[in-house]
TrEMBL record:
Protein name: MurR/RpiR family transcriptional regulator
Lineage per the UniProt record: Bacteria, Pseudomonadati, Pseudomonadota, Alphaproteobacteria, Hyphomicrobiales
Top-rank taxon: Bacteria
UniProt entry keywords in alphabetical sequence: DNA-binding, Transcription, Transcription regulation
GO molecular-function term, one example from the UniProt record: carbohydrate derivative binding
InterPro entries: Homeodomain-like_sf, HTH_RpiR, RpiR-like, RpiR-like_SIS, SIS_dom, SIS_dom_sf, WH-like_DNA-bd_sf
One Pfam family named in its UniProt record: SIS
PROSITE patterns, per the entry: HTH_RPIR (PS51071)
Amino acid sequence: MTSFATAQDKILEELPSLSTELRKAARFLLDHPDEVALVSMRVLASRSEVTPTTFVRLARRLGFGDWAQLREPFENRLRSGSSPYAAKADALVLRSARETIFAESVNATAANITAVTTTNSTNDVEAACVLLEKAKGVRVVGFRSCRAPAHCLVYLCRMFRNDVTLLGSDGGALEAELASLDRGEAVVAIGFQPYSRELGLVTDVARRRGVPVLAIVDSMAAPLTRDADVILRFSVDSPSFFPSVAAAVATVEALAATMLTRSGTKGAAKVRQTEAVLTALGAYMPD
């Protein structure tokens, strides 16, 4: 598979020798990489003032079998999160088939969730459960959009164990919370590229204090994995301008369900007790 950097270098290398028409198309690819991934060849041709077949000829001139092969590294670049959100938004609004974006987003989300089971093996899930089961307390952390899966994991786990807490929830005093992080606890860190700066602080403190880390991330190359004892992965692919966190939520939901199953009747009894307390306190609206 050709990387975006390789494709970019190839275009730059061939640029001086291209015809005027091909050079115009090539320059457009270099200057508007997000649009290449998100809009049709016909729209690209209109925007760059060349014919659609020009892009086909350019792909073959650069050594690609067809336009789809040349476009692929641009699509992979966008999926990886290496492009700014604003640029993705700009490209998104230029789409001609705007009515399809809703269905495309839902389908991408479904594919991401399905991929969770193939990306993470049974051994990976078991290792994650064992790490959390051995801990006398679990600190869960996720910032910005990853706050949602982090909060979800805490809420679900607290239905059957009281020692799971959300880091960074005390008025932003993250450093103060980390001061009490103790050996024997565990940290669950959730993130995707670009990774929130605060995650590095959390995993660094955990490493220095000998606290095991479960990283739930979008890539094995994530900075969090360097300090992680166990890694679970999720995909953030989306045709939208922002990475999807749906698979991250699905991952933590499945992890919590697996943990409860492993806890046996004691865990089920705790859920029953917690539910009764919530009901008594009027947490739910009456039917």
